[in-house]
Amino acid sequence: MTKYIALLRGINVGGHKKFTKAQQLEMLSSLGYENTNVYLHTGNWFFETSENKEEITQNISEAIQIKFGWELPILVLTPSEIENILENCPFSEEKKVKSYFVILSEKPSDRLLKEVSSIQYPNEEIIIIDNCIYFYASKGYGRTKFNMNTFEKKLNVKATSRNYRTMTKLLELSTTL
After folding, report:
1. Residue burial 135-163, b: 16+ Cβ < 10 Å; e: rest
2. N or C: which end of the chain has fewer CB within 10 A?
């Protein structure tokens, strides 16, 4: 059995795609996963299974499609992958704790990375390393021009974002399964 963290994008955000924590735990159980937990209610799932990432993604996607009719990005990571993302953050510790981590479904092609690397906004720092966009906004996230959907389309990948506090909590909770 391997520990995994599934990150679902776009549930319970702004009153859309309501999916209660109890429903999320019930779904994890119905999929046969063990040692399940849900952090917050915005799609941070912890569990153990012998399935591989592709099987997990497909099974969760199908279950959500059947129950709610939604299609949404689901990214499955191991605790060590979350740890690597945090450790590879290129920002100073002061900036890191105020950063967002846009996790990509895969590492984009070098050609697409080159095209996207020219996108810059005042007071915002965007650095892409492997399968993560590290994003820091000196004036706060709510006032940014950064748009995850734009990067997702231009890089031709699925993505979901979490702030530093959530990322560190994901790592902490993943060790307590």
Report:
1. bbbeeeeeebebeeeebbeebebbbbbbe
2. N
Distance in angstroms (rounded) separating the CA atoms of residues 72 and 16:
12
pTM for the predicted model, two decimal places: 0.91
Per the structure block, which two tokens stand in for 153?
A: 């389309």
Question: Where do the domains of the chain lie, and which CATH numbers do they carry?
Answer: 2-77 (3.30.70.1280), 80-174 (3.30.70)
pLDDT along the chain (177 residues), means of 10: 94 84 94 94 94 97 95 95 96 96 94 89 92 92 82 93 95 85
